[in-house]
Write a structure and sequence with these properties.
7-stranded mixed β-sheet, Dihydrodipicolinate Reductase, domain 2, about 35% helix
């Protein structure tokens, strides 16, 4: 490479980086003032660095063979900024590509008005709704990630407010320890912002969010209204209450009107957002967000079943160890889980395969499953071994799954990679439920084997947030609705 070529490439990079830097305050302001979540092919731009924004533009290259122009997306962003928008999810990348291919001579403003018109009218009708209160009942791995995601949404455009955390008091310095666990995380890194503790009032102030910490052993001991909390959604992260009767105990607490379980539920609706979202009705007061593995595999299974039909299949999950396992060999009521989690692969059962049918009834009785717990703290893999009604091959199947990840209504759930180097730690913090490892796909005739990576903590927590929004009538549209 000559000096002139080097200088040219460097100048182009600096120009693109400057544009990315100019996008950040616009993206942030639209998000915090109006609740507009901007994405590029399903990947969020919220709190992204300039380099991350540039990488997301390059991400499209593996599918479209052409890098998304940041000049094009910046023009669309400026035009969107001028529009009257309320809480909505808008895919900036798809709009930029569509304008270049489908605008038919329309001015950008006219194209956007045409493409987003119906959605914008729906937004304007909903944007006047009052913010809703959220209580996290339990503050373990999922509870703290939900807290981070809710705090991340701080701003006047936010329609869900984290108002309280309910825990059992563990020690005299319990509040400081809870705040420290929120502040620092060995897997997901440090909290992005500031945290202050008020021990007199039992509150945590996180990025301007005042969170009441309530110590209680049972919901009947709590009166949320004394803290100004009204008509709250209680998100139960304890896993202790699994059926409708037990979860309904949350309504013994004054101020609670709905309950969401972050675990598989019995005799309640199990929702995998993006698959059976429409099963959530306004009158539903108790719902389960199913399990992390069920959320990881069900969207891809739905896509495969809709296209090829599934006769039967087996799901094997290679799952990171969890808190219910022992650090060293000790008594455990479960089989094998008493053995040291960080030293062993532990074969165990999973109900995820059977639970799929709760969100996707057409697969009832067609799937079996097992799990192998492995010595990693986060990010798991699901291996789907499926017999199909229609023949396919690796190239055709991967092409279909790529389109699902880019253009289907489940693009918030399904991700896709062509990387030959990806490993589990690369998926820490992934917001989609699963990433299809296309290089590992096996497909011959009427059978296929798919490998799905998933962040069993963070990806699942993002799904829970989506269910929460839907339960509270805050399920704002994703635009454009059609690609």
């Amino acid at each position: 490479m000559s000096v002139e070529q080097h200088d040219k490439y460097l100048a182009e990079w600096e120009n693109r980086q400057e544009i990315a830097e100019a996008m950040i305050p616009i993206i942030g302001k639209m998000y915090r003032s109006s609740g507009v979540v901007l994405k590029i092919y399903g990947r969020t731009l919220i709190n992204a660095s300039p380099v991350t924004i540039l990488k997301l533009h390059r991400y499209v290259r593996q599918f479209e063979k052409k890098e998304l122009s940041i000049h094009d997306s910046f023009k669309v962003l400026i035009a969107l900024q001028k529009m009257k928008l309320g809480p909505v999810r808008i895919d900036l990348g798809i709009l930029a590509v569509q304008f270049n291919t489908d605008a038919s001579g329309l001015a950008l403003e006219d194209f956007l008005a045409q493409k987003l018109g119906d959605g914008i009218r729906q937004i304007q009708e909903q944007s006047s709704s009052e913010p809703r209160d959220v209580v996290l009942y339990g503050f373990g791995r999922i509870g703290r990630l939900l807290a981070r995601l809710l705090i991340e949404r701080t701003g006047s455009g936010n329609k869900m407010r984290l108002r309280a955390i309910v825990v059992r008091k563990g020690s005299d310095d319990d509040l400081q320890k809870r705040a420290s666990l929120l502040r620092r995380d060995s897997v997901h890194g440090s909290f992005k912002g500031t945290i202050k503790v008020n021990e007199k009032d039992n509150t945590i102030m996180a990025n301007g969010n005042l969170i009441q910490v309530i110590y209680a052993n049972h919901p009947k001991e709590i009166d949320y209204t004394q803290y100004g909390i009204q008509d709250a959604l209680v998100v139960d992260n304890t896993g202790i209450r699994r059926d409708e009767a037990a979860l309904s105990e949350h309504f013994l607490a004054k101020g609670a009107v709905k309950a969401l379980l972050t675990a598989p539920g019995k005799d309640v609706k199990n929702i995998v957002f993006g698959v059976n979202t429409d099963d959530i009705k306004p009158e539903d007061n108790v719902i389960s967000a199913a399990s992390c593995t069920t959320n990881a595999i069900t969207p891809t299974l739905k896509a495969i079943n809709d296209k090829y039909g599934i006769i039967k299949g087996h799901v094997e999950t290679v799952h990171s160890y969890t808190n219910d396992q022992n650090l060293i060999d000790n008594f455990h009521k479960g089989e094998r889980r008493g053995r040291a989690a960080a030293l062993n692969m532990v074969l165990t059962e999973t109900g995820a395969a059977k639970a799929v049918s709760k969100a996707l009834p057409e697969l009832e009785g067609k799937l079996t499953g097992n799990a192998i717990r492995v010595p990693t703290p986060n990010v798991s893999m699901a291996i789907l071994n499926l017999n199909l009604k229609k023949d396919t091959d690796k190239r055709s199947l991967n092409s279909f799954l790529r389109d699902m990840a880019l253009h289907s209504p489940m693009r918030e759930q399904i991700d896709y990679t062509t990387s030959t180097e990806i490993v589990s730690t690369d998926l820490v913090g992934a917001r989609k439920t699963a990433t299809i490892d296309s290089k590992a796909t096996i497909a011959t005739g009427d059978s296929c084997i798919l490998y799905l990576w998933y962040d069993n903590e963070f990806g699942y927590s993002c799904q829970v947030i989506r269910v929460m929004q839907k339960m509270m009538g805050l399920d704002f549209p994703s635009l454009p609705t059609k690609d």
